[in-house]
Amino acid sequence: MDILLISANREKSPYPVFPLGLAFLAGPLEAAGHGIRAIDLCFEDDPEATVAEAFSASLPDAVVISIRNIDNVTFPGSRSYLAGVRKVVDLCRGRTVIILGGSGYSLMPREILESLDGDYGIVGEGEDVLPRLLECLARNENPLHLPGVLVKGEVSFLPPHPVETIGKPERNLFPVERYNREGGMANLQTKRGCPFSCTYCTYPILEGSRVRLRNIDEILHEIRELVENFGTEYIYFVDDIFNYPMDFAESLCRAIIGSGLKLNWSAFINPGFISPELVRLMVEAGCDAMEFGTDSGSPTMLRSLGKSFGPDDIRSASALCRDAGVDFAHYILFGGPGETEYTVLESFDLMDEVEPTAVIGMTGIRIFPGTGLYLKAIEDGIIGPGTPLLEPVFYLSPHVKDSLCDLVTNEAMERRNWVVPGLEINMSDAMLAALRSFPVKGPLWKLMKRLGRTRQRPLSARSE
Please, what are the domains in the chain? Predict the structure, then answer.
């Protein structure tokens, strides 16, 4: 069959993200004998014209549309992406079979399939099941028996099966060099699955709770290919937690060191699973920045959010980075269950103490079905069991619901290293776009130590 892969993601803030999920699908589809074409809408000025042109060139037997995110999970400056995806789906309807998938789609598959009026949907990882779905379609068979496959008009589907062996993404279908240039880095995945229980997190829903590791030699081959074939100078490891399991992270770093590959990289780190030896190996392997999924500096809120570490772990991890001369950022979520003005100030106080390169703060926490936060939101009367969630809905603690944005604004504006995207404090989309015009490698927050505070008023102040 002739298959057209479409990456529907058009978000470029804080930087454009290479469509890794679709790249992972290419190998299994080719192995099954399918012809593959791909279009990436991220950089297209007229995405509908791009899709129409692809159809004019050759009508595909099926189109697979990847939905990476359904919104920007940012309050109060939230924006939904579904309207743009709907335009793409509308262009395809009636001309070919429409299959929806991707991490964003998998969060609310029934609702999105119905809303966008697709023909089929794939929940979770698609490498194994997508070729089987296409085989069923070729034989005019009903695919309801396939795990993770939704069929238009049906209300139930079998749970998805995790992929046992994670393959290699085929990047040649997409403009890697442009992502390197405009995003400043290439993304790479070393594992899937998350065994932790953060109350708001969707990773266990999307990838399961069992950690599945890629072969280190294959990872090294992929890094070498990025460096030698695509000119990549910086890599971001997109694992939900790079440093768990710790022994795997150490082995990977030793392998990178032994390979002689020269590049820099960064990753998302759990502050509870880090040691001087791991930091030493990471730095020697090229790591020049770490991003910590800290969420709060308050012991009360860390427990409320289901975190696996406490304030002392945050202090220790920060000290290790500082001693090693590595830039580091802490991500903070404000407004979760039990948040008060006191716990908000605890987070600011701890960040003042550990002095990271940057703090990225978010006000409000996006509610997704299947998470602990979803159940808590129902219990607290913030939503009902039938509340539509396709458009962004956020948990805001009743204790700070009316004061949170002002409190965070006042405190963050006093600190040069704080960024609050939803309130556009110390950073804005316009500033990010300007920074991306320079050859910046790695996370843009690394520039915080060289930037002064923004001169623009925060979003909360402008809306008054």
Answer: 2-151 (3.40.50.2300), 175-462 (3.80.30.20)
